[in-house]
Design a protein that fits this description.
Blueprint: H1 2-45, H2 53-67
Length: 68
């Protein structure tokens, strides 16, 4: 009888320890995701400038047609 109670107590203690470990791991994971998301949004906010010849030809053609 004492042995089964001891085993049940041991299982309960292990279960609680596992739950505490998973809660710490989840908290650390959330912190890592927040840190990663801050860096990725800062990089995507920067405007992209397109310096291709195709863009300048379009503006030149548009300006000539506007003069006529």
């Amino acid at each position: 009888m004492k042995r089964s109670l001891l085993e049940k107590g041991f299982v309960i203690v292990l279960f609680v320890l596992v739950m505490v470990a998973f809660s710490f791991a989840e908290r650390d994971t959330q912190k890592a995701f927040e840190k990663f998301n801050v860096k990725s949004t800062v990089q995507t906010v920067a405007p992209k400038v397109d310096y291709t010849a195709e863009a300048s030809e379009r503006s030149t053609i548009h300006n000539k047609s506007a003069r006529n």
